[in-house]
Every structure is written in C-alpha cells, then in structure tokens.
Amino acid sequence: MLIVEQLVKSYRGFRAVDGISFRVEAGEIVGLLGPNGAGKTTTLRCIAGILKPDGGRIVIGGYDLATDEQRAKRLLAFIPEMPNPYELLTVREHMKLVAMCYDTMDVYEQRAAELLKRYELADKADALAGTLSKGMKQKLAVVCALIHDAKVFLCDEPLMGIDPKGQYLFKSELQRLRDEGCAILVSTHQLDTAERLCDRVIIMHKGQLLAEGTLSELQQRAQMEGSTLEEVFLRLTEESEQVVPAETSSIQR
Ligand code: ATP
Questions:
Q1: Is residue 114 part of a domain?
Q2: For residue 28, what is the domain's CATH number?
Q3: Among candidate residues 7, 43, 33, 35, the one with its CA nearest the CA of residue 215
Q4: Coil, helix or strand for 110?
Q5: Which domain holds residue 16?
Q6: 187 close to 37: Cβ distance less than 8 angstroms
Q7: Residue 200: enclosing H or E segment and its boundaries?
C-alpha cells in the first residue's frame, strides 16, 4: 500500500534522510522509531507531499507521488506532530473543509457528529481553532484525518498532548482501521505503546534505516530474547553509535 524506495532529503547539504527504503502493507500498523533527529518527521513529511524529496520514489496505493500526486494524496491522511490549524476556522469548518477537499460531503454530517462526540469535541464544534487547547488541536487533527476515506495513515507522534481517554480511543481507532485493511505508519517515542500497537517497527538512525522487523525479529538480531522493545531499541541504537562516530552538526539555517 505504501512503498518508499531510496528516499533522500537534504536541508542545504545536510542529509536528514539518507536513502531509506521500506514498505507498509495493507492491514498493518508499522512503528517508525528513532532517536531525536533520526529523520522520522522528514520522512513522513516527504510521504505526505509537504516536502519534496531530493531522490527516491514514494508510491501510495499504486500511485507514484511524483507523477500522480492527486490520486496518491487522495488515499492519504496525515496527522502532524504539531498541528497548526487555521485559527479563524471553527472545529466544524475544518472538518467540512477536509470533507469537501476529499469529496466525502455525502457522509460528512453523520461522520462529523460521530467524531465530535467520540473525541469529546462536540461542545467545541463552533469554537475557533485558535482558542483550542494543545490536546484539543491534536484531536482536531485526528478527527480531520478520520472524516475522509483514507487508506494510508501517517501519524507523527499522534498521542502527544491527548488525554488518556483520547489516546485510548485513537489507538483503538488505528487497530480498527488496520483490521479494515488500511496501512498505518506511526512515529512515536513511546516504545511501550509501539510494542503493544505495532505489528512491526522500523528503527531510523541518522537518516538511515538501522533495523526493521517484528519484536521477535529485533530481539533475535540484538540477541536479546525476551527483552522489551525499549531494551532492544536502546541496544541497537547504542551499538550503532559505536560503529558510526558522531558527526559534527552541519545543520544550516
Ligand atoms: P524528533 O524525534 O526529535 O522529532 P525526527 O526523527 O523527527 O526527530 P527530523 O525532524 O526529521 O527528525 O529531523 C532530522 C534532521 O534534520 C535533524 O538533524 C534536524 O535538525 C534536521 N532538520 C529538520 N528540519 C530542518 C530544516 N527545516 N532545516 C534544517 N535542518 C532540519
């Protein structure tokens, strides 16, 4: 459902994403893990079509993002790390705008009512997005992602700032979408959540793919049978630090 091949993205000469390749099949939740600065957000933003890659190929539901952008994006929902809604549109107007863009106005009324209720945003439906709390803005991004019929979900730290009930609801929602055949890629630092939620994980480090697999495959690779994802993650990323000496920062402004 989602194919990423040899993706490269640099920021003025600094390779934030350095030739990574992976797939997310229909009906699986894949965790995108990695230390701060590993390149997770850059990867997700390239797949979402917000950043233009310098190299590589992204295919969504059979459509190449570079040559068939509209059809590829139609299948996609993106929940960004820091949602930045239009301050002067209300919650309901955001949902309507997304439904209009994705041609799902026929089911909009019913879905909007359900989502607003489920995510406890009904009393904020007519509030301007600029007046929402941080967690409510995150929930707004979630309900906007769920208002259309996406087949591929990209979630960048989707649980950040959301209250425990909202987190529980959203995790159940991802499992339901997975069971309905959607492909889901979730970046997170919450490794206990990733261990419970994800069918597989991809570990990025310094723009490259360090490891990929189920928990038991990663345990075998790290020779840590029975260990948690957190323990395996720490071992693999520490080992990689020892192999690859820390580079001096070349971040440009
Ligand atoms: P985190 O877990 O901290 O969110 P991440 O894995 O999502 O990190 P990215 O945000 O993709 O990492 O950043 C990857 C690298 O690219 C980092 O070194 C970051 O400083 C750099 N970077 C990201 N955006 C820019 C930018 N606009 N200009 C220059 N460098 C950038």
A1: no
A2: 3.40.50.300
A3: 33
A4: helix
A5: 1-74+192-253
A6: no
A7: strand 200-205
Instruction: Supply the residue whose CA is at minimum distance from atom 18 of ligand 1.
Output: 37
- Domain annotation covers residue 60: yes
How many domains is the chain partitioned into structurally?
A: 1
pLDDT of residue 248: 39
Here the tokens at position 132 are: 């929402």
Inter-axis angle of helices 229-243 and 215-222, to 10 degrees? 50
Residue 53 inside a domain? The answer is yes
- Atom number of ligand 1 nearest to Cα 44: 11
For a ligand 1 pocket test, name from 40, 187, 250 the mutation site with the most ligand atoms within 8 angstroms of its C-beta.
Answer: 40
Sheet bearing 55-60, strands edge to edge: 14-24, 2-11, 55-60, 63-64
Whether 43 is covered by a domain: the verdict is yes
CA 234 to ligand 1 centroid distance, Å: 20
Per-residue pLDDT of the chain (253 residues; tens, 9 = 90+): 999 999 999 999 999 999 999 999 999 999 999 999 999 999 999 999 999 999 999 999 999 999 999 999 999 999 998 889 999 999 999 999 999 999 989 999 999 999 999 999 999 999 999 999 999 999 999 999 999 989 999 999 988 888 898 889 889 999 999 999 999 999 999 999 999 999 999 999 999 999 999 999 999 999 999 999 999 999 999 888 776 444 433 433 3
Residue 209's DSSP bridge partners are 204
* CB distance 251 to ligand 1 below 6 Å: yes
The residue whose CA has the least distance to atom 17 of ligand 1 is 37
**pTM, entire model:** 0.91
